[in-house]
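User: Sequence recovery, please. Input:
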């Protein structure tokens, strides 16, 4: 009798959850992102939210929760209810930070439901327009001659802006001085005001400032030259043999998100990045708009997480 009662309760709860998922969404959705306003992830989150709320029929608000390379936002999502009303837009800094940090308060892969990537994009190694460095080789040669004399800005330890330069330093046996800031916008401002010598930054926010003549790009981290700035050499062409670094941004939720909601959100992401205006805006940020299945995104995160853990073991690059 007790077993039948328990089974009946489980069935009713399951049916109720399924009905709720089928009716989703019925109220405002919040998308959290873990970096400062005006950075690449924030811009991408707002582009997606603006488009997806049209077809979902509910308002979507984007909330910045910056800190610890996006891990504060990730932790808040990992602990939230799996109802589809609190989601996370995150970049490849998520598995990167998880693999390099000594203390992460969540499981990098299994504490999340993976929905879809939205876009992939390279980084640019930039100096101020008045900088004496005309090539990436000149900058690296200076670092060899004067270790830790050259300063670079990042949006915090464990972020892409930090790790990409550490990877360059490791591969070229150079040493630079890391100066962390709270967000990509502040890091870019530090380069503009001369507080630092160079920066490795995502293509989106920096591109208009390159066109305006404020900054000069020494190299792009993709395998091939970037179509918007074909005159900029790849890092490989600039002297770092075989170097490639591509970031991505995508959508996730807390673990155990109901599959009907996951399927709906995945379809909405695919539809959103297929809209010509959205696609062109993501491409203008230097991106290659590309969706994945939830399974493909989970595999991507897991693969990169293991790669960063391996790198940390082999190079002693860690984050406290």
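Assistant: Recovered sequence (320 residues):
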């Amino acid at each position: 009798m007790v077993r039948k009662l328990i089974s009946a309760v489980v069935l009713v709860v399951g049916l109720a959850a399924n009905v709720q998922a089928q009716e989703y969404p019925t109220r405002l959705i919040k998308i959290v992102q873990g970096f400062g306003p005006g950075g690449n992830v924030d811009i991408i989150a707002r582009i997606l939210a603006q488009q997806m709320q049209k077809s979902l029929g509910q308002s979507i608000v984007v909330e910045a929760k910056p800190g610890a390379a996006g891990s504060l936002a990730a932790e808040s999502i990992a602990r939230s209810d799996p109802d589809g009303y609190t989601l996370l837009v995150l970049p490849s800094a998520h598995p990167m930070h998880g693999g390099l940090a000594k203390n992460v308060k969540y499981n990098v892969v299994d504490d999340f439901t993976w929905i879809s990537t939205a876009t992939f994009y390279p980084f640019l190694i930039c100096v101020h327009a008045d900088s004496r460095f005309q090539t990436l080789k000149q900058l690296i040669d200076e670092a060899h001659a004067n270790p830790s004399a050259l300063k670079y800005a990042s949006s915090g330890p464990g972020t892409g802006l930090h790790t990409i330069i550490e990877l360059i330093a490791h591969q070229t046996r150079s040493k630079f001085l890391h100066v962390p800031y709270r967000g990509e916008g502040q890091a870019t401002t530090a380069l503009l005001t001369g507080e630092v010598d160079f920066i490795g930054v995502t293509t989106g926010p920096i591109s208009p400032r390159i066109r305006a003549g404020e900054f000069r790009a020494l190299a792009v981290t993709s395998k091939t030259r970037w179509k918007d700035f074909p005159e900029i050499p790849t890092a490989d062409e600039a002297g770092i043999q075989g170097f490639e670094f591509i970031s991505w941004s995508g959508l996730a939720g807390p673990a155990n998100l109901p599959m009907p909601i996951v399927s709906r959100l995945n379809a909405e992401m695919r539809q959103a990045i297929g809209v010509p205006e959205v696609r062109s805006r993501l491409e203008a940020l230097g991106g290659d708009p590309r969706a994945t299945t939830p399974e493909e995104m989970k595999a991507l995160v897991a693969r990169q997480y293991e790669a960063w853990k391996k790198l940390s073991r082999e190079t002693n690059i860690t984050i406290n």
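Residues 122-220 form a domain with the D-Maltodextrin-Binding Protein; domain 2 fold (CATH 3.40.190.10).
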